[in-house]
Amino acid sequence: MSRRSGILEFAVLGLLRESPMHGYELRKRLNTSLGIFRAFSYGTLYPCLKTLVGNGWLIEEPGNASEEALAASLAGRRAKIVYRLTGDGKEHFEELLSHTGPDAWEDEHFAARFAFFGQTEREVRMRVLEGRRSRLEERLEKMRASLARTRERLDDYTLELQRHGMESVEREVRWLNELIESERAGRDRRRPDPENPAEHNGTTGETDGLPRPRDTASTGGSLPGRPVPPDPSEDTAK
Predict the structure, then answer these.
(1) Which of 25, 23, 179, 24 is nearest to 110 (CA)?
(2) Do 71 and 34 meet the contact criterion of CB atoms below 8 Å apart?
(3) What are residue 61's DSSP bridge partners?
């Protein structure tokens, strides 16, 4: 499995853990909530779903909305397929959430992991955040060293581009420092809703209401993605 297909499978499992969806809903969520998947063609989603079904992590169910079924019948189409996470799929996703290796620190995988921090244990979140910060600090050191060596040979525009890249990394490091500090302090920076005190907790009960990123560009342009026009095609049983 390639790294990018692995990220897609992770994201699909995470979204379906929240609720069952049909393919069109998944496409919208992947594009609008997890903008890193704007680069994926829609044709990659269905093979991914078939793989997850084949592994026993998802099941396919016919759409059960009567209006939808009637509309599909009148139009000569089959009802949309709804994908639901199985018990094995939930267990597999939780196993993936516990991984804290170097892949979790890379640009695209980190963005996907961060999108599901509300379902991640605090200790795991800390290891991922600290690993990401360490990786970016290494990157920043290399960028500074490279700029120092080549500064005299660069024109003004190339030099400005180099500075822009460094500033983006520096912003993300500062953001990560804030997140790590908040995790360590265990602070809840959001005001709880007195009518629904549990809404700020993820499935692990440890989301802590951490501050949201103020500069999504510094996280690889991944959270959240820009809305995309609806795809008029329907999802039908294959």
Answers:
(1) 179
(2) no
(3) 82
